[in-house]
Amino acid sequence: MKIAKYIHSCLLFEEEGEKLLFDPGTHTFVEGLVKPDAFRDVSTVVITHGHPDHLDLNALKQILALSGAVVIANGEVADTLGKEDIDVTVVEEGEHAAGPFRLRAIPTPHEPILAPSLPRHTAFLVNERVLNCADSFGEPLLAHAGVDVLIVPVMAPFLTEVGAFDFARRMRPRQVIPVHDGYSKPFFLKLRYDNYEKQFDQIGVKFHRLAEPGDGVTV
Fold this sequence. Notes:
By secondary structure, the protein is of the alpha/beta class. It is 23% helix and 27% strand. It is built from 5 helices and 14 strands. Strands 6-5-4-3-2-1-14 form a 7-stranded mixed beta sheet.
């Protein structure tokens, strides 16, 4: 299974010739480094929650028009997309098959932020090997400690590096893919990746430096 990152939390999974896209949000497209037509051949789009940095409505519409992909999301996201005449397969919890991808939806709380309310939030375990935490370090995720690949936010208003590393350490993955870092300029991203990589090396975890749009890894 190949996983490529397209800025911030937008991830493209490829398995057996099919493609699944997570969270095409505003940070991915705002600078024009990535265009919606890069995802013209995806078969499934998964939205973890409704924040704009995970869900860019205009980009999603273009992706769906090009690809005809199925959208998977929780009920709150489905309500938002329904107002735009976008059909959604609602998955709140448990297993769902999307071609060669076996998805396990895990309801988890979004981490606290300065906002009047928090969105309904869903993490996903893919093929029992890759856990996409999205914007959560919630307790339900600890049931999947020891997962092969952990996709974890490493920069955000809701975290510190110490907190992010401590959560990842408790999860005991073999590999880490960093996300939620689309705020950062390249020089600063390099510095933070240098630090994270050094810390993860010390506990025997492979840290994948997916810094440029389209950088990927086979897991």
